[in-house]
Amino acid sequence: MDSVVNYAYKNSMEIPIEILSSLTINAFIQVESLQQAKGIIELNPEHILILGQRIIKKDMPYEWLFAAELAFLRSWSNLSR
Predict the structure, then answer these.
(1) 51, 31 in Cβ contact below 8 A?
(2) Sign of dihedral through CA atoms 61, 64, 70, 73?
(3) More confident residue, 13 or 30
(4) Residues 57 and 41: beta-carbon distance below 8 Å
């Protein structure tokens, strides 16, 4: 599978958010706690966009989003904190 950037370039798309949305829109994500939000991203970091949209749309605590974002960033780093 091509990267999002390559796909966007091939299809003359300047904003890859449309691609990311279409890749994750079919993901069924139900989040009911901060720990669950972190767990979802630790297992499936590609769902960060749809999880963020769901948290914002459902007016859930932003701390859940921040925790998920931190888990996402840690998935890209070997640093342990």
Answers:
(1) yes
(2) negative
(3) 30
(4) no
